[in-house]
Amino acid sequence: MKAMRALLPWLAIALAFAGVAAGIHAAFTSTYQRGHAAGADSVHRQWSDHRAASALKEAELQAYHRAREQTLVLRLDQLDQSNHEELQRVENEKAAFIAGVRAGRIRLSIPVAHAAACNAHHSAASADPAAAAEPAETRAELAPAAAQSLVAIADDGDTAIRDLNTCIDRYNTVRTTLNHDVQSP
Length: 185
Prior knowledge:
- It is built from 4 helices and 2 strands.
- The chain has helices at 2-103, 113-125, 129-133, 144-183, and strands spanning 109-111, 139-141.
- It has a two-stranded antiparallel sheet with strand order 1-2.
- The protein is rod-shaped.
């Protein structure tokens, strides 16, 4: 028993140290958990604030780009409308011209080369030297069907040029709008 009594103070000291260690551990753990929870809450609040700010910025950018897209669509629609009106005007002029050719009110002719050489030969025989130096231009009138075909060829070329110019105008409108967007979002 004596040996036990000798161990009792050491056991009491060991239990005291264990109690103190357990208390320190509990205090540190509690402090760590409170600090961790507070830090985690702070980080979560910052993340939430950042997400909310990002969502707001994204909504503003989407609204801005939707407005720019609507402006671009309106400009392109105006170009298309202008092109359509121009094509209608040209079609009306072409129809009136073709009707004039068919009715004989408008006559189309082309210069004839071999007739000019014949005229030069005949004018050389004439007494007037000025007429010999300047041969008269001989022209041949086109049949209405041939005139209509030539006019159709020229009109097809004009239509292609107008369509290309409209395409270029559309491209420039889109390019200008997009370049403006890149410079000032």
